[in-house]
Specification:
Layout (H helix, E strand, L loop, with lengths): L1 H23 L6 E4 L4 E3 L1 H8 L4 E6 L4 H16 L4 E9 L3 H9 L4 H11 L8 H9 L4 E5 L2 H10 L6 H4 L12 H11 L8 H25 L4 E7 H4 L4 H8 L4 E6 L16 E4 L4
Parallel strand pairs: 3-6, 3-7, 4-5, 4-6, 7-8
Antiparallel strand pairs: 1-2, 1-8
Helix pairs in contact: 1-3, 7-10, 9-10, 10-12
Length: 285
């Protein structure tokens, strides 16, 4: 009987996963497309395919609430499916890992924790609150992935070569502005109106530092916590296979899947397996 109850609970969770995705995406039935063959998957199929991965990247456009709701539902479904989870967050810098640990353990109240969140991230707490609350309720470890703003600003201003030996000691080896044409165009687009104010090479190096450090911090966590599945929540530009995933591949042997929400930059009919493994499509608000 307990086994039947657990199976019924998982089925209920998966059904809820589908329904909440529909509500989050403002449409009757959002689609989860497997990029390799553009086939629509049921939530059960998606979970079966991603459940054995070491890392699951779930991208976002930072200010889209629907993207965070979809991220939460994927986390809940993986958790209910028996996954031993941790959640890696771009929103926190590594030096604030202790605050994440205290939040999950219940040592920090919401008011105090949200203040720390705001020192790390510029978007409203309400955008991410439910994800952090769920992690706390279920004692799911939260992993700070980001790097000091000072380091990124320094690289943007003066280049990677300006970093001191002490700063370099916290970075993985082999960081350089070496990207394919598609990622180069993305970086140029991100540079945008600031192109006349800063060097493209410096800006590219800063992007590579970002991607490499978040990959390095994810790998470091998994090395210390074998058997965990790390769900990484980061902007779609970082979660894109050319971003953090490519550096995970360069620096380790960990397996991963990349799920991106459809957006202005991510069009389901134009991306291929060099970009992502799955796309969630739907109407956005």
């Amino acid at each position: 009987m307990p086994g039947k109850i657990r199976r019924a609970s998982r089925l209920s969770r998966l059904l809820f996963f589908a329904l909440v995705l529909a509500a989050a995406y403002g449409c009757v039935e959002p689609k989860i497309l497997r990029v390799a063959d553009k086939r629509e998957l049921k939530p059960t199929e998606l979970l079966k395919e991603i459940g054995e991965r070491d890392i699951v990247f779930v991208g976002e456009v930072h200010n889209r609430k629907s993207h965070h709701e979809a991220q939460l539902e994927i986390i809940k479904a993986l958790y209910s499916n028996g996954g031993q989870l941790a959640i890696g967050v771009e929103m926190f810098r590594k030096e604030n890992q202790t605050a994440l640990d205290k939040w999950v353990s219940g040592e920090l109240g919401e008011s105090e924790f949200s203040e720390i969140y705001h020192r790390n991230w510029g978007l409203p707490w309400s955008q991410y609150r439910e994800i952090f609350v769920f992690a706390r309720e279920k004692r799911i470890p939260l992993v700070a992935l980001n790097i000091s703003r000072h380091v990124i600003r320094q690289v943007v201003k003066d280049g990677f070569a300006s970093l001191t030996p002490e700063q370099l000691s916290g970075l993985p080896p082999g960081i350089e502005c070496k990207v394919d044409e598609t990622y180069e165009e993305f970086i140029k687009d991100a540079l945008g109106e600031h192109a006349g104010e800063m060097s493209f090479k410096n800006f590219c190096e800063a992007q590579m530092v970002w991607d490499n450090v978040m990959a390095h911090n994810a790998i470091e966590f998994l090395d210390s916590n074998p058997g965990k599945t790390l769900v990484i929540l980061a902007g779609s530009g970082h979660s894109w296979k050319r971003g953090i995933p490519s550096q995970v591949d360069r620096l380790s042997g960990y397996s991963f899947s990349v799920i991106l929400p459809e957006s202005d930059r991510v069009e389901a009919d134009k991306i291929d397996t060099k970009d992502a493994d799955y796309v969630i499509t739907g109407w956005f608000f």
